[in-house]
Amino acid sequence: MKFMAHKIRMVAQAFVILFVLISLTHAFNVTKAPHPVLLALASVSAFWMINCRTTWLPFLGPTAFPIGVLKPRLPHGHDTSVSVKAPADAIAAVFWASEKPAPNPFDAYGSYENSGVAEVINGEVLFRVRAPHPYTVGNAVMKKTVAPHVHYRWITETGMLSGVRTTFV
User: Fold this and answer.
1) Model-level pTM?
2) pLDDT tens digits for range 92-134
3) Quick one: which of 77, 70, 82, 161 has its CA closest to 113?
4) 164 Cβ contact partners less than 8 Å away, ≥ 6 residues apart
5) Are residues 45 and 76 in the same domain?
6) Is 157 exposed, middle or buried (0-12, 13-18, 19+ CB in 10 A)?
7) Are 92 and 128 members of one domain?
8) Residue 39's domain spans which residues?
9) 147 and 166 in contact (C-beta within 8 Å)?
10) Residues whose CB is less than 8 angstroms from the CB of residue 89 and which lie 6 or more positions away in sequence, other chains included
11) Which residue in 55, 6, 14, 9 sits closest to 38, CA to CA?
12) Residue 73: partners with Cβ closer than 8 Å, 6 or more residues away
């Protein structure tokens, strides 16, 4: 998998850090004020980072994992199939779906029995699950019901898993 987003994130962080450092040294009359172009780059970078879901939820991003433990497996009693086109470097996908309608995701997924690992065949993967159910996310102020879906991560030969992806059923 290409990790261009990581490179972009590193460059964005560098612009923000550089701007902050120059601004701090300027505050102590050590250097001149940051150039307006650096201010613009730092502002765009900060805006981009604020709007990236992995800034606030880093566990949803790519991760290293010992893929040898991820053997093909299907949930017992599967009755729903969802096909997804795989990226060129994916060899399989680990997937999971909700078990029951619930007021929150913790109850909806239960003990994650509605999950498995599916191999990529002819550039596609077929997720076979028990029919997922909607569940509610949010709090008393703002609630949202999420339609039935399957979450998954692509598995590559390098031992990397992609960020969490979602396909609706």
Assistant:
1) 0.72
2) 999 999 999 998 899 999 999 999 999 999 999 999 999 999 9
3) 77
4) 60, 151, 152, 153
5) no
6) exposed
7) yes
8) 4-60
9) no
10) 1, 154, 156, 157
11) 14
12) 116, 117
